[in-house]
Amino acid sequence: MNVGVLALQGDFLEHIDMLDRLGVRAKLVKTPKDLDSIGALVFPGGESTTMSKLLESSGLGEALKARLELPIFGTCAGLILLARSISDGRPDQVSFGYLDVEVRRNGFGRQIRSFEADLDVLEISPPPMKAVFIRAPVIEKVGSDVKVMATVSYDFNGKEESVPVVVRQGRYLASAFHPELTGDTRLHEYFLQHIVESR
Q: Which CATH architecture does the domain made up of 3-196 adopt?
């Protein structure tokens, strides 16, 4: 099966490299026609408002709304694209609403607040996964059908809170961080084995 990677903006090449390392044929998705030959899709990290504009201008936004059956893995900005609602987004920002979560853009702070953390992720064997958070969104609420697979503790203005950073709902998987930047393929493997292949 071909796995597509949304290639309008952001770190899509890193996802292509991850999938290639796992022996999966990956295809750059830039136009609606590119969706015809794929069975799953990755939304990469990047700049969510820029992605929104390019999804509209390319026609991919409307085309994706007609492909509800596609399993999708979203990372960082890709999580924002999957979310039901977005705080601090532009009024015209694209959000497909596939994943029943509410997210806040740049919720962990600007680039200077970027950080790394070691995460225990449900259904993924040890050791802990190193997670890279760069202007990452915060998941503020999850719906009853959303499975929280990992959390991180963070100091939000002097108050330590634990928030979800890996979530799954049916055919949709999302992380608030960038697994493609660490060389750890386990989250991509989980997506392929437990979501894509199981369908």
A: 3-Layer(aba) Sandwich (3.40)
Burial pattern 41-73, b for ≥16 Cβ within 10 A else e, equals bbbbbbebbebbbbbeebebbebbeeeeebbbb
Residues 169, 145 contacting (CB under 8 angstroms): yes
Active-site positions read 76, 178, 180
In terms of phi and psi (left: phi > 0; alpha: psi -120 to 50; beta: otherwise), the region of 193 is: alpha
Instruction: Give the model's confidence band at 157: pLDDT under 50 very low, under 70 low, under 90 confident, else very high.
Output: confident
Secondary structure class of 103 (helix, strand, coil): strand
Which residue has better confidence, 174 or 199? 174
Domain residue extents for the chain = 3-196
The better pLDDT of the pair 161, 92 is held by 161
**In angstroms, what CA-CA distances link 166 with 20, 74, 137, 169?**
23, 10, 11, 11
Joined together, the tokens standing for residue 57 give: 């201008």
Which of 99-113, 120-134, 171-185 shows the lowest per-residue confidence on average (mean pLDDT)?
99-113
Give me the DSSP letters along 52-67: HHHHHHHSHHHHHHT-
Comparing 48 with 3, the larger pLDDT belongs to 3
The CA-based dihedral angle spanning residues 13, 78, 139, 47, taken in that order and rounded to the nearest 10 degrees: 80
Average pLDDT value for residue range 106-135: 90
